[in-house]
Amino acid sequence: MECRIGQHREGATGGLTARYGVTRLVHFERFGDMAHAIAREKQLKAWTRDWKIQLIETDNPRWLDLYAALCGRLEVPE
After folding, report:
1. Which run of H or E residues covers position 55?
2. Residue 27 has pLDDT above 80, yes or no
């Protein structure tokens, strides 16, 4: 996952992240297997923008970049 996030941060993947300059990781979820992760991704894609914002703000109200927390370098903010 770290490699994939690095690609997004550098704009190497093209698409939405490169087009809009998205560089912060503001939400992530861990899954035990790829099938569950893909199912959740599809579920979230069907959500409205407001629902997605509410999900982010529930766990990360300051919209901090969670990349370091994901890599185990920092605690996930409360």
Report:
1. helix 49-59
2. yes
Q: Is 12:3 a contact under the CB 8 Å cutoff?
A: no
Task: List Cα–Cα distances, 16 to 23, 63, 75, in angstroms.
Answer: 11, 19, 28
Q: What are phi and psi of 62, to 5 degrees?
A: -95, 5
pLDDT in tens, 1-18: 666 676 666 767 777 777
Tokens of 13: 């993947």
**Cβ atoms of 50 and 35 closer than 8 Å:** no
For residue 69, which of 31, 16, 24 has the smallest C-alpha distance? 24
In this prediction the pTM is: 0.73
Residue whose token pair is 């199912």? 39
For residue 72, pLDDT over 60 is answered with: yes
